[in-house]
From TrEMBL:
Organism encoding this protein: Desulfoluna limicola
InterPro entries cross-referenced by the UniProt entry: CheY-like_superfamily, Diguanylate_Cyclase, GGDEF_dom, Nucleotide_cyclase, Rev_trsase/Diguanyl_cyclase, Sig_transdc_resp-reg_receiver
Lineage, broadest ranks: Bacteria, Pseudomonadati, Thermodesulfobacteriota, Desulfobacteria, Desulfobacterales
4-aspartylphosphate modification, residue list: 173
Protein name: diguanylate cyclase
Keywords in alphabetical order: Phosphoprotein
C-alpha cells in the first residue's frame, strides 16, 4: 500500500522487510525519508532508528540538505509514550494503523515537499535538552519557520535583547538549570516590553496552580510534555495568526494616526510659508485668551505687513515673491520664542504674531527686534538676495483689563489699525497701543 501510493505520485521507493536489510541498503543508496514499522521481524523500529543516529551511519547522509534522515513511524499503538520515545531518538512523524488512502502521501509530502505555510516567520526554541529542542524545532522548520535555539533562559534573554524585532514566537521549557522559562517570560514582557509576543511554555508539570503561575508571568499558552507535534503546530498557528493580526492592526492604526496627523497639520498650516493659517488662529487664539485670563497673565498680538510687496511681485515675478514670503517667516521665526510664540499668515503679505505672557510694554521690544531683523537680513531668492522692510502694529492686555474688552475681534482690529498707522506714518516702523473696544463679541 505504501509503495503503490508513493510511486503513483512520482516517488522512487526502495523496500526492505527487516532491520538488517534496511541498514545494508542505506550504505548503498541513502533515501530522503524512511517509513519504518515499529515492530520488525528481527527487532523493533525504535532500535533501528537509534542505530541510524550512530556515526557509522550518519556519515552516509551527513551531506544531505537537512543533515539528518527523517523517519516516519508506522504503528498499531499510537500512544503519547510511543511518540515520546520516537521523538527522543529523532522521529519526524507517526502514522497510526489503519491508515487510509492519501494519509501516507500527506505525511511524506509534509516532510519532503512541505507546504511551508508559515514561511517568513521566525521562532526561538529554548530548552536545556538538545533532543527536546530538536523535537520542537524540526516540525517548525518543516512548516517554513526559521528557528533559532538557545540552551537556557540567560542565553535566550541575551539573544532576544539583540534579535527581538525578528522573532515572531518563543517556545520555552519551564524548568531549566539557570534561568527558567518563567523568569525569561517575565523579563521579555517587562524589561523588553514584548507584550504582544506569543510565548508558549513546554512543561512536564500538570499541577493547575503552577500552570496558572505561568500565565501570571505572561505566558500565552502551554503544552504538557510529552506532546504530539500536531498539537504544537496547531497552537503555534493560532497564536502566530493572532500575533500577525495584532501587528497588522497596530500598523494600520499607526498609519491612520499618521495620516490624521498629516491631515490636521495640512488643515492648520499655510502651504507656502509653513506657518499657521487662519483656521488654526480662529481656534487657538480663543484658547490663548481664556488661558491668559484664567491664569491672570498677559497676552499681546503683533500684526505686520511687508512694505511695498506688490513692487516685488511686479518687478521680479510671483515666484520670487513667494520666496520672499517664506524667507520673511523664517526670519521672524528666529526672533521669537520657539513653542511659545506663533505666527499666522493672516492674508497675502500680512502676518500675525501671537505672544503669550507678553504685556503691551514688552510687545514693543519684540516688534522692534523683528523690524530690525527684517531690515538687516537680505532674503535669499532664486535670483539676487533682496532687502525688504516691514511695518508692525501691536496691542495686548494684562491681568487688570476689563473682561468684556478682551475679545478676538477687539485684539485683531486694534492691532490692524495700529499697523496701518505705521504704514501711514512712513512704513518700516512699530506702533504699539492699548486695546480698544470695538464690540463685546468674542
Amino acid at each position: 500500500m505504501i509503495v503503490r501510493e508513493l510511486q503513483d505520485h512520482n516517488y522512487t521507493v526502495l523496500e526492505a522487510s527487516t532491520a538488517e536489510d534496511a541498514l545494508e541498503m542505506i550504505t548503498r543508496e541513502v533515501p530522503d525519508l524512511i517509513t519504518l514499522e515499529t515492530v520488525l521481524p528481527d527487532g523493533d523500529g525504535f532500535s533501528l532508528c537509534k542505530t541510524l543516529t550512530e556515526p557509522g551511519y550518519t556519515k552516509y547522509y551527513a551531506q544531505s540538505p537537512t543533515g539528518h534522515l527523517p523517519v516516519i513511524f508506522i504503528t498499531e499503538h499510537d500512544t503519547l509514550e510511543e511518540r515520546r520515545k520516537g521523538f527522543e531518538i529523532g522521529a519526524a512523524d507517526f502514522l497510526a494503523k489503519p491508515f487510509y488512502r492519501g494519509d501516507v502521501l500527506k505525511a511524506v509530502n509534509n516532510i519532503v515537499r512541505p507546504n511551508k505555510r508559515l514561511i517568513g516567520l521566525t521562532a526561538l526554541v529554548v530548552d536545556d535538552s538538545q533532543m527536546a529542542r530538536r523535537i520542537s524545532a524540526e516540525p517548525l522548520r518543516r512548516e517554513g519557520l526559521t528557528v533559532f535555539e538557545c540552551s537556557d533562559g540567560d542565553e535566550a534573554l541575551c539573544f532576544m535583547e539583540k534579535m527581538h524585532k525578528k522573532i515572531d514566537i518563543v517556545i520555552t521549557d519551564l524548568k531549566m538549570p539557570k534561568m527558567g522559562g518563567d523568569t525569561l517570560c517575565l523579563k521579555l514582557r517587562q524589561d523588553l516590553g514584548l507584550t504582544d509576543l506569543p510565548i508558549i511554555f513546554l512543561t512536564a508539570i500538570s499541577d493547575h496552580t503552577l500552570l496558572l503561575d505561568m500565565f501570571k508571568v505572561g505566558a500565552t499558552d502551554y503544552l504538557v510534555k510529552p506532546f504530539v507535534k500536531e498539537e504544537l503546530i496547531a497552537r503555534l498557528r493560532v497564536h502566530l495568526e493572532r500575533a500577525q493580526l495584532t501587528k497588522n492592526l497596530r500598523r494600520i492604526i499607526g498609519s491612520l494616526k499618521k495620516a490624521n496627523d498629516e491631515i490636521r497639520t495640512l488643515s492648520i498650516t499655510d502651504p507656502l510659508t509653513g506657518c499657521y493659517n487662519r483656521n488654526y488662529m480662529g481656534v487657538q487664539l480663543k484658547k490663548e485668551i481664556r488661558t491668559a485670563q484664567r491664569c491672570k497673565r498677559s497676552l499681546s498680538l503683533l500684526m505686520c505687513d511687508i512694505d511695498h510687496f506688490k513692487r516685488v511681485n511686479d518687478r521680479y515675478g510671483h515666484t520670487v515673491g513667494d520666496e520672499v514670503l517664506k524667507g520673511f517667516v523664517e526670519c521672524m521665526g528666529g526672533c521669537i520664542r520657539a513653542d511659545i510664540d506663533w505666527v499666522v499668515r493672516f492674508g497675502g503679505e500680512e502676518f500675525l504674531i501671537v505672544l503669550p505672557e507678553t504685556g503691551v510694554d514688552g510687545v514693543r521690544d519684540v516688534g522692534e527686534r523683528l523690524r530690525r531683523a527684517v531690515e538687516e537680513t537680505p532674503l535669499k531668492t532664486s535670483g539676487d538676495a533682496l532687502s525688504i522692510t516691514a511695518s508692525f502694529g501691536g496691542t495686548g492686555f494684562g491681568p487688570g483689563e476689563p473682561p468684556n474688552l478682551i475679545t478676538v475681534r477687539n485684539l485683531l482690529v486694534t492691532a490692524d489699525n495700529l499697523l496701518y498707522s505705521s504704514k501711514n506714518n512712513g512704513r518700516n516702523r512699530v506702533t504699539i497701543g492699548p486695546l480698544i473696544g470695538i464690540d463685546a463679541e468674542s
